[in-house]
């Protein structure tokens, strides 16, 4: 099986000529995979599409172009060449690895999954730790007498209020700065004044 | 257990509870809240007397009366996360209600500005994935990106030749379509995947090698590209703990020193909450009073992220209090620009520092650090 695959891959690479499409009998199957750009490439051999529709299309095109012939925009040619490379016939085959190589690949993959799992669990642990810190603080706040003559739990009730926390200017725009790999020319503005 | 007997036991348990118990929710019942007086201001810690899960299950079915008499309240589910200062003094709270001064503190943090350093495993894995991607993707076609014989095209050709025909700039010398296409792994000790090396190669590649006339520029006449700045700054090298452009890939925390000489203690800025104020109002005021107004700060929320309880020191006769107890509730703030300035502060502060998490552990008192360490991020 792999031998035939190899030969087929070799053959497609050797004989793949984007300008000369190999005449195939299974025209219906090719219709499904062709993009309009690919179909435009076949205009010189429009009869491969067969049938009256192909003929009509050819007559219409020749009538439109008139005496210009087969001139084309070089940009269009460039684009067509590019899509010819991107066609499924030119894309390299899936990875084929020998036994030891595949075992190494599998080991690397598992190590990566393990690494990601440790990171994820570390993040979860941090979140849990921070949550428990907040929980303990809120519980102590709920059970403590407020400042001065306030009743028990007053500060807790106020701290739980969300009035003015969200909404416009709730989060400053400076907070949206993403982390970078290297610092800015001035890493920190020490001279900011109110 | 067969189904009929299980149903019988369930029904009998239901009947038992309905006849013997008042209508109390299960959590309150197991906490024994109905049996304790409400005079205690805070839950009596029972970490040491807390029964094991096995005995707790047994108590639920058979000996609930004795257990309810033995323990007054269960600790909250935080369990061991609670600061141990609360567990150390049961004598002060079980007999009388203790008055604590309420204080509000602010943990002002500078978020990390840089991403974390990649581990060697990560960077080599990324190189491995890039080379696999080269094996799987369509060949690079330069004429799609560069118009033929333009300056950019000539420049590209020169650089491509120097890279031995490899279009990618960061995968080293590897051609997936050649005879050695299978050889996509680097050898042990190779520095191809090192991020510093990759950055170096990218900077070299960014230099223009061909003038606008299409002539190659001599090496001494090329315009150098601005290099990315190092991740360690000058303040890092000097270990200047008052600067904010230090330890850029870690969080910095503002700590201040109270008092002078031997009695000086480091801690986060905090102050008493008067009757007419709330925690966040006090925290705002205290921050402005102690570290100045020239800081662009933002309070993340009004909910305290940590608290620290210092119990009162009771004299030998039980009435005298040389030091009253206090509870400090910390809010979390972020600083986006500016610098702390202790000039003319009203809280007796003498010094400040911006410290990372590890340096805080060395600087803060041990119990103080234990109370606040739960709010720290990973880095």
Automatic annotation (TrEMBL), chain A:
GO terms for molecular function: structural constituent of ribosome. Residues 53-73 are annotated as: Disordered. It comes from the Eukaryota. One of its GO terms (biological process) is mitochondrial translation. InterPro entries: Ribosomal_mL40_fung. One of its GO terms (cellular component) is mitochondrion. This is Uncharacterized protein. It comes from Podospora appendiculata.
TrEMBL record, chain B:
Residues 17-53 have a biased composition (Polar residues). It comes from the Eukaryota. Residues 55-98 have a biased composition (Low complexity). The keyword Coiled coil does not apply. Residues 17-98, 213-238 are annotated as: Disordered. Residues 220-238 have a biased composition (Basic and acidic residues). PANTHER family: 39S RIBOSOMAL PROTEIN L46, MITOCHONDRIAL PRECURSOR-RELATED (PTHR13124), LARGE RIBOSOMAL SUBUNIT PROTEIN ML46 (PTHR13124:SF12). Belongs to the mitochondrion-specific ribosomal protein mL46 family. This is Large ribosomal subunit protein mL46. It comes from Podospora appendiculata. The lineage of its organism: Eukaryota, Fungi, Dikarya, Ascomycota, Pezizomycotina.
């Amino acid at each position: 099986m792999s031998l035939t695959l190899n030969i087929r891959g070799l053959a497609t690479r050797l004989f793949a000529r984007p300008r000369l499409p190999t005449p195939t009998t299974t025209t219906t199957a090719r219709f499904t995979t062709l993009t309009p750009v690919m179909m435009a490439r076949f205009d010189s051999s429009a009869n491969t599409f067969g049938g009256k529709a192909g003929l009509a299309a050819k007559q219409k095109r020749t009538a439109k172009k008139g005496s210009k012939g087969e001139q084309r925009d070089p940009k269009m040619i460039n684009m067509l060449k590019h899509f010819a490379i991107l066609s499924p016939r030119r894309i390299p085959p899936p990875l084929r690895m020998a036994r030891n190589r595949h075992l190494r690949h599998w080991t690397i993959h598992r190590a990566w999954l393990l690494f990601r799992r440790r990171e994820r669990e570390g993040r979860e642990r941090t979140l849990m730790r921070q949550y428990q810190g907040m929980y303990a603080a809120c519980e102590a706040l709920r059970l403590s007498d407020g400042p001065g003559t306030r009743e028990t739990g007053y500060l807790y009730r106020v701290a739980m209020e969300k009035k003015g926390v969200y909404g416009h200017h709730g989060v400053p725009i400076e907070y949206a700065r993403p982390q970078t790999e290297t610092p800015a020319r001035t890493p920190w503005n020490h001279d900011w004044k109110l | 257990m067969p189904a009929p007997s299980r149903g019988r036991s369930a029904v009998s348990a239901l009947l038992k509870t309905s006849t013997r118990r008042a209508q109390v929710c299960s959590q309150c019942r197991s906490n024994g809240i109905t049996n304790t007086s409400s005079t205690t201001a805070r839950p009596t810690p029972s970490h040491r007397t807390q029964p094991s899960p096995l005995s707790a299950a047994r108590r639920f079915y058979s000996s609930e009366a004795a257990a309810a008499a033995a323990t007054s309240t269960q600790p909250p589910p935080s369990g061991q996360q609670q600061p141990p200062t609360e567990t150390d003094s049961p004598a002060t709270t079980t007999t009388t209600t203790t008055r604590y001064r309420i204080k509000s503190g602010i943990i002002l943090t500078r978020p990390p500005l840089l991403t974390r350093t990649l581990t060697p495993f990560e960077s080599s894995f990324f190189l491995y994935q890039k080379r696999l991607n080269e094996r799987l993707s369509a060949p690079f076609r330069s004429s799609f990106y560069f118009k033929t014989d333009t300056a950019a095209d000539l420049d590209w050709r020169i650089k491509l030749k120097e890279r031995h025909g490899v279009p990618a700039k960061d995968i080293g010398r590897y051609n997936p379509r050649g005879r050695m296409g299978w050889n996509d792994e680097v050898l042990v000790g190779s520095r191809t995947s090192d991020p510093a090396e990759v950055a170096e190669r990218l900077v070299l590649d960014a230099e223009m090698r061909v003038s606008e006339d299409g002539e190659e520029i001599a090496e001494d006449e090329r315009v150098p590209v601005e290099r990315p700045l190092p991740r360690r700054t000058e303040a890092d090298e000097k270990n200047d703990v008052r600067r904010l452009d230090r330890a850029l890939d870690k969080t910095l925390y503002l700590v201040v020193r109270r008092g002078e000489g031997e009695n000086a203690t480091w801690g986060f800025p905090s102050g008493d909450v008067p009757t007419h104020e709330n925690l966040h109002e006090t925290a705002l005021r205290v921050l402005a009073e102690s570290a100045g107004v020239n800081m662009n700060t933002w309070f993340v929320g009004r909910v305290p992220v940590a608290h620290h309880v210092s119990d009162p020191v009771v004299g030998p006769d039980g009435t005298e209090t040389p030091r009253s107890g206090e509870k400090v509730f910390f809010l979390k703030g972020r600083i986006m620009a500016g610098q702390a300035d202790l000039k003319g502060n009203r809280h007796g502060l003498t010094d400040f520092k911006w410290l990372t998490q590890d340096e805080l552990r060395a600087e803060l008192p041990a119990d103080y650090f234990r109370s606040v360490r739960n709010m720290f991020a990973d880095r």
